[in-house]
Amino acid sequence: MKLDGAHDLAARLAPQLMLDASEPYRPVAYGYTVFRTAGQSPSSKFLVEPVAAVTVEYAIYYDWDIGHLYDLEHVWVHADEEGRVVRVEASAHGGRRVMDAGNGQAELRDGRPVVYVEAGKHAHWATPELMGEGDRQKLAIACGPAAGIEGVHLGNPFAQRGDYRPSGADHRLARLKMRRDAFVPSHRYLALTEPVQLMPWAELEASIPERVEHELARLRGANGHLRAVFLDCGDTLVDERTEVKAPGTEVVLQGDLIPGAGEMMRALKAAGYCLVLVADGPRQSFVNLLGRHQLWDLFDAHVISEDIGALKPDARMFEAAFSAIGIDRSEAWRCVMVGNNLSRDIKGANALGITSVFMAWSSLRTHEPADSSEHPDYKIGSPEELPALLEQLESLLHYRGPAPFRG
């Protein structure tokens, strides 16, 4: 077989990928580049040096790695003038290794190299037997407890030149998806049988930013994440014992934050949660209190009883919060209300099917529900506990669906 056109050559030498039977992600496309002389790879950091007549570089794109959104791996197939494979190299965790299944040669099937793909991470191996016990243990961690650790991948040319710009929420939702995709590698390999697009690297390169944006849009449009976190102020963010009111009024001039409240708010904002203040009292009180501590502007909306003409647990307060962020009552189950008052914050949230979280930091108000309508779904003792709780709630959200209203 004499060497012929680039596409035909790339199709004939394309590696046969062997995927772990538990693999959740399939390759999207192969972008090929043909080298007849040494040159810099257009899709990786490596120099490609043909060891025979020609080398075909395959940039293999996956939408997902178990650690991040976006994954680009590589296989280099060196062939002689007759199109016979003489050497195969492949990427592995940022490096490049020779695929040696014995006698310095890769396993071949119908003249094509066979490459084994590490579960979840997509590093390449010449044979499964080369993966030692230490490698398997690291992989088990990566595919299990460490799933989603990076969010959206930023260490690639597309992100670095601004072809896509993920928000804090995008990173959070990507991590959420991958945690849900966590699995145990089987170390049993099956040949990839579904067709994978083969195209010149330039075509694949042009499509990757759009693919990343498509995946981000899918994440944002799914219903398996929290739509909003509603927060009270007094003894939820601000220590009511330290509040100072303007003489003869109910307007609070200043007050100290509960320890950890500022850090908690900034962490939630960085994670991209939609934050809504849902509080009873004069608007100016909250402008004074939260503005003084640079928290007012961290909220996406402010729903205040003085403006609404009602106090929690009145449903109008929560309806106004839904409206302020553009959702309706049917999505109450995807919202969380955090507050210190069982008869207002918790009862009001419960009545609409909002997940209720009791902030039990202060002893100014009772911690004992008057009846079942005041029983919180969850209880925390300090602001520092909230981010982890929200992460757990969001991870489980797609299992539960809407809850019945309690009132």
UniProtKB/TrEMBL annotation:
Q: Which UniProt keywords apply?
A: Hydrolase, Magnesium, Metal-binding
Query: Where does this protein come from, organism-wise?
Result: Devosia salina
Cite the Gene3D superfamilies for this sequence.
HAD superfamily/HAD-like
Pfam families assigned to the protein according to its UniProt record, in alphabetical order: Hydrolase
- Keyword Oxidoreductase, does the record have it? no
Coiled-coil intervals, chain numbering: none
Note the InterPro entries from the entry: HAD-like_hydrolase, HAD-like_sf, HAD_sf
Metal-binding found in the keyword field = yes
Q: Spell out the protein name for this chain.
A: HAD hydrolase-like protein
